[in-house]
Design a protein that fits this description.
about 325 residues; Pantoate_hydroxy_MeTrfase; alpha/beta
């Protein structure tokens, strides 16, 4: 506003021949004050071949046909956008984002409001995949009513289509409470990371006959409570395959072999979006090297800025010569 007034005042002192150009420029200056042009597009270009929306019915049909279900984590708009574009049937906003997106030590640190924020971001990008939000530690264990209230917030505020919670037989009543309210629940048995302190760390579960029976009993209990599918984490492949055969709902394996009905991985891990030397669990396969590609690109940008190669003329916006002359004349008088 100050700049516009100053230019208008300066117009009176300019030769009459230059005044029409300034007057013509005034609408542009006014528009400049009101609009901020951005180089960012929320969605980019729409997919050329949009997929049909994945539903609970879709997942059940896949399970009946024996077709593996693909699932991956996402923690923000870009990671969800690429997961959806890549054809994932399910996208999980996992509490692993505590470490891979927020730099926390483990999943116990993240709070409900933080999870909801990330769920909303993922939901904006996910058009076809079935979305599931991970209930964080402390938001569902106290009582079934607490868990239901949290699950409702994940659907209404987080815009998720289902929720995931950890635990076996002891969580059956809670799962039943949520599913009875019409909210799909993805179970999670075997290694339950939120309880890693009680388990003595991130240890494989079901390595003994008694341990394997416990995982099976937990899986049967949460199935009976109404889960539409169950994550099996860090369980011997043979045990996971037997459990999968015993269940009537799909199993989603992570470190549980290829006998499960589907698989899930943390996107940051499998795309290689981390610096060299970071520890990875045995079950993670690194399918890409996003860190190295990003590092190379940013280093090139740094070098070109330092050498003034960037921005080049093709990266700048032109101005008509006569308008520039008017501007230069006016600016000299400010």
């Amino acid at each position: 506003m100050y700049l516009t007034r100053s230019l208008a005042r300066s117009c009176a002192s300019l030769p009459r021949s230059t005044r029409p150009s300034l007057v013509a420029a005034m609408p542009f200056l006014s528009a400049f004050q009101q609009f901020r042009h951005s180089s960012h597009s929320p969605m980019g270009t729409p997919p050329t071949n949009p997929r049909k929306k994945v539903t609970i019915g879709t997942l059940r049909s896949m399970h009946r046909r024996g077709e593996p279900i693909t699932m991956i984590t996402a923690h923000d708009f870009p990671s969800a956008h690429v997961a959806d574009a890549a054809g994932m049937e399910m996208v999980l906003v996992g509490d692993s984002l505590a470490m891979v997106a927020l730099g926390m030590e483990d999943t116990s640190e993240i709070i409900l409001e933080e999870m909801l924020l990330h769920c909303r971001s993922v939901a904006r990008a996910t058009k076809a995949a079935f979305t599931v939000g991970d209930l964080p530690m402390g938001s569902y264990e106290i009582a079934p009513q607490q868990a239901l209230e949290t699950a409702i917030r994940f659907v209404k505020e987080g815009r998720m289509q289902g929720i995931k919670l950890e635990g076996g037989k002891e969580m059956a009543q809670t799962i039943e409470k949520i599913t009875t309210a019409g909210i799909p629940v993805l179970g999670h048995v075997g290694l339950t990371p939120q309880r890693q302190n009680a388990l003595g760390g991130f240890r494989v579960q079901g390595k003994t006959s008694l341990g394997a029976m416990k995982v099976l009993e937990d899986a049967l209990a949460v199935q009976e409570a109404g889960c539409f599918a169950i994550v099996l984490e860090a369980v011997p492949a043979e045990v996971a395959a037997i459990i999968t055969q015993k269940l009537s709902v799909p199993t989603i394996g992570i470190g549980a072999g290829n006998g499960c009905s589907g698989q899930v991985l943390v996107q940051v891990d499998m795309t290689g979006n981390f610096p060299p030397g970071r520890f990875l669990p045995k079950f993670v396969k690194k399918y890409g090297d996003v860190w190295s590609e990003s590092l190379k690109a940013i280093e090139s940008y740094r070098d070109e800025v330092k050498s003034r190669q960037y921005p080049a003329p093709e990266h700048t916006y032109p101005i008509p010569k006569e308008e520039l002359e008017v501007f230069c004349a006016i600016s000299k008088k400010l």
